[in-house]
Amino acid sequence: MSGRLEVDRTTLVVVDVQEAFRKAIPDFDRIAKATAALIEGAEAIGIPIVISEQYPKGLGETVPEVAEHLPDGVEPLEKLVFAASEAEGFDLEGREQVLLCGIETHVCVNQTALDLLASGVEVQVAEDAVGSRSDQNRRVGLHKMERAGAVMTSVETALFELLGRAGTDEFKRVQRLILDYAPNPGAAAKETVA
Question: How many Cβ atoms are within 10 Å of 131's Cβ, its own excluded?
Fold first, then answer.
């Protein structure tokens, strides 16, 4: 395991950022914004995106602020299983790395990570783009995934790691995303991406 995300090996997997969680997850708006930034960044950089929805008839569809950023042709995979990787149609197209985000950290995100790790896929979890109904369950999910071999990362870390260099059109797009997304933009953050 290299520990570094590589463009030609990585798929972004977005798990269940759905309407029913909006009122249940305390920091839902931040998670949706972070997820949208990851989707836009993945599209700019050129990595595939897989997205799932848990029982959309009951939990609703992917929220509009996330769905509107999905590239043409990317449709959510409906599932009843908790691990998105077990949903019908789930396909990494031969890629061996996954950048993972979504809801809930301790259930569907955790089980997706564990399943992928067991099949030999390298998993990195964007900590600032996952959530649970309680902070305790979020911490449990993150801890369990990390103990199983997942690497914890952030939206900004992952996107700049995938870029690898400044001075490109992709860099400029991602830089704008990060400046818009940054939870606590400050002088240090602006210096980093300038």
Answer: 29
> Is 190's pLDDT higher than 50?
no
Residue in 79, 101, 115, 128 annotated catalytic: 79
CA distance 54 to 168: 37
Location of structure tokens 């783009």? 129
> What is the tens place of the pLDDT at every residue in 59-83?
999 999 999 999 999 999 999 999 9
Catalytic residue from among 33, 101, 108, 128: 108
CB neighbour burial string for 97-123, b if at least 16 within 10 angstroms, e if fewer: bbbbbbbbbbbbbbbbbbbbbeeebbb
Model pLDDT for residues 6-38, shown as the tens digit of each residue: 999 999 999 999 999 999 999 999 999 999 999
